[in-house]
Design brief:
three-stranded antiparallel beta sheet, 11 strands, six-stranded antiparallel beta sheet
Length: 433
C-alpha cells in the first residue's frame, strides 16, 4: 500500500511538472502549424477542406497521450537514467535541427547527435575549459544515451502502431511536378503526436528520492537504484512523413509501419549492447542517425523506380481523393478507382465529365466505376442544388492543371507563412523527402 501511495504521489508531481514545462506546448504548437499548412495546401489546390487542422490536432493529442502512457509503463521496467538537464539538452538540440529540416525534429536525431557530442567531449582536456564549459561538459556527460536510445526504439514501435492504424486517414492528396514537367497526383502521409512521458528513473540523477522501495528492479543502472527512485515528466514529439506517387495511402502506411518496426528493432539491439558495454555508445548513436536516413533514402528510391499511379492513363478518370461527407463519399467511391461512365457516357476528360453530369435532366446521376481490382460497380444517386459540381470527387491532374505543391517538406519559415502552391513550369521538381 505504501508503494501504491508513493507511486500516485510521484505521478501527480510528474504530471504537474509536464504541465509547467513549455516543451509540451511547443510540440503542440508545431503540430498545429503542420496541420494548418496541410489544410491550406489542400484548399488552394482542390478548393476543399479534407483535413481540418483543429480536428487533426485533437486526434493527435489523444493518440499521443495514449501511446505516452503505454511507453511509460514499458519504460518503467527499463529504467532510463534522467538528469534535471535532460529535457533541456533534448529539446535544445531538437530546436536547432528543426531550423534545418522539419523531419529532423524526431527524437532519434537529437539523441543520436547528443551521443556523438558526448563521445567527442571525452577528448577535451578539462584543465583547458572555463567554468561554464566545464559545467556544460559535465551535464552532457551525465546523459544516459543508451537508455535514451532504448526509449527512442520504444517510441518508434508506438509510431509504427499509430502509422499502421491512422496512416491512411492522415494521407493528404497533392499535385506534384513529375518527370518531364508532367503534373501527377500524389499523397503526403504525415502524422505527428505530442507524447507526455512519465519515466521511472534513479534518484541518483539529482532528483528527490521516493520514500518507498520499488517492488521490481529495472534493467538499467542496477547499481543506482539503492539510492531511491522517482518519476520524471519528459514531453517528446513523434511523427513520420512519407511521399508516394505510386501507392495507395493504405499500402504506403503499411510500408512505413514495417520500416519503423525494423528501425526500432535494429536500434533497440544496438542500444541494449551499448547499455551493457558503454564503449559502444557512440556507435549506437551513429546508428540512430544513419539507419533513419538509410530507410528514408530506400523509400525515396522505391518511389523513383515506380510509375506514377494518380494519372489518367487508363480507360477513364482516376480518382485522387474524395471530399468527406460529399455525395461521392456516400456512394462509396474511394481513392484509386476510375470513373468509366457517367449517365451512360464514357468519360476520358474533365470536360466530358462535366458534360455527362449536365445531361441528368432529372437531377439524377448514374455512374459506372472501375474498382481497385478493375471490376465494374454501378452507382446512382439523386443530385441536389448546391452540391459539389463533381459530386465531391477530386480527380488526378490533367494537362490543364496549372498548380502544384513542392515535393520537399516545408521549412519552419514556410509553415509560418502558410501553404502556397506553385505555378506550372517546364522543368520538373526533384523527388525530395
Amino acid at each position: 500500500m505504501e508503494v501504491v501511495t508513493e507511486v500516485l504521489y510521484q505521478l501527480g508531481a510528474a504530471v504537474l511538472q509536464l504541465i509547467m514545462q513549455p516543451f509540451f506546448y511547443i510540440a503542440l504548437g508545431l503540430i498545429i502549424l503542420i496541420y494548418r499548412y496541410q489544410m491550406q495546401v489542400e484548399q488552394r489546390l482542390f478548393h476543399a477542406r479534407l483535413h481540418p487542422w483543429l480536428l487533426e490536432t485533437g486526434r493527435s493529442l489523444a493518440g499521443g497521450v495514449a501511446v505516452g502512457l503505454l511507453v511509460s509503463v514499458v519504460a518503467a521496467f527499463i529504467g532510463v537514467g534522467l538528469t534535471p538537464d535532460t529535457a533541456l539538452w533534448v529539446w535544445g538540440t531538437a530546436g536547432l535541427l528543426l531550423l534545418l529540416r522539419i523531419r529532423w525534429l524526431c527524437l532519434a536525431y537529437s539523441v543520436g547527435l547528443l551521443g556523438l557530442l558526448q563521445g567527442a567531449v571525452h577528448w577535451l582536456d578539462p584543465q583547458t575549459l572555463d567554468p561554464l564549459a566545464t559545467r556544460l561538459v559535465a551535464s552532457l556527460g551525465a546523459l544516459d544515451i543508451p537508455g535514451l536510445l532504448l526509449l527512442v526504439a520504444l517510441l518508434h514501435v508506438a509510431e509504427a502502431l499509430l502509422t499502421g492504424w491512422q496512416g491512411a486517414r492522415l494521407a493528404s492528396p497533392l499535385v506534384l511536378s513529375g518527370k518531364r514537367g508532367r503534373l501527377v497526383g500524389a499523397y503526403r502521409q504525415q502524422g505527428y503526436w505530442p507524447v507526455p512521458l512519465l519515466l521511472v528513473t534513479p534518484a541518483a540523477g539529482g532528483f528527490q528520492a521516493a520514500d518507498a522501495v520499488l517492488p521490481w528492479t529495472p534493467l538499467l543502472h542496477s547499481g543506482e537504484w539503492g539510492g531511491g527512485w522517482t518519476i520524471v515528466g519528459l514531453p517528446v514529439i513523434i511523427g513520420f512523413t512519407a511521399l508516394t506517387r505510386s501507392l495507395l495511402p493504405a499500402q504506403k502506411a503499411r510500408q512505413s509501419a514495417r520500416q519503423l518496426l525494423l528501425y526500432s528493432f535494429l536500434l533497440g539491439v544496438v542500444a541494449a549492447l551499448a547499455a551493457w558495454w558503454p564503449p559502444l555508445t557512440v556507435a549506437a548513436a551513429l546508428c540512430a542517425l544513419v539507419l533513419h536516413e538509410v530507410l528514408t533514402l530506400i523509400s525515396a528510391w522505391r518511389e523513383s523506380t515506380r510509375s506514377p499511379y494518380y494519372v489518367h492513363d487508363g480507360p477513364g478518370l482516376r480518382v485522387l481523393a474524395v471530399v468527406p461527407g460529399s455525395p461521392a463519399a456516400e456512394l462509396g467511391i474511394v481513392t484509386g478507382e476510375v470513373l468509366y461512365k457517367v449517365n451512360g457516357l464514357r468519360v476520358r476528360t474533365q470536360a466530358e465529365l462535366h458534360e455527362s453530369l449536365a445531361r441528368s435532366s432529372a437531377a439524377f446521376c448514374k455512374l459506372e466505376v472501375l474498382n481497385l481490382e478493375g471490376q465494374s460497380k454501378f452507382l446512382q444517386r439523386a443530385r441536389y442544388e448546391g452540391e459539389h459540381h463533381q459530386l465531391g470527387i477530386i480527380l488526378a491532374p490533367d494537362e490543364y492543371a496549372d498548380q502544384y505543391a513542392p515535393a520537399a517538406q516545408p521549412s519552419l519559415w514556410r509553415l509560418l507563412r502558410g501553404g502556397k502552391p506553385r505555378r506550372k513550369r517546364d522543368t520538373p521538381d526533384p523527388l525530395s523527402f
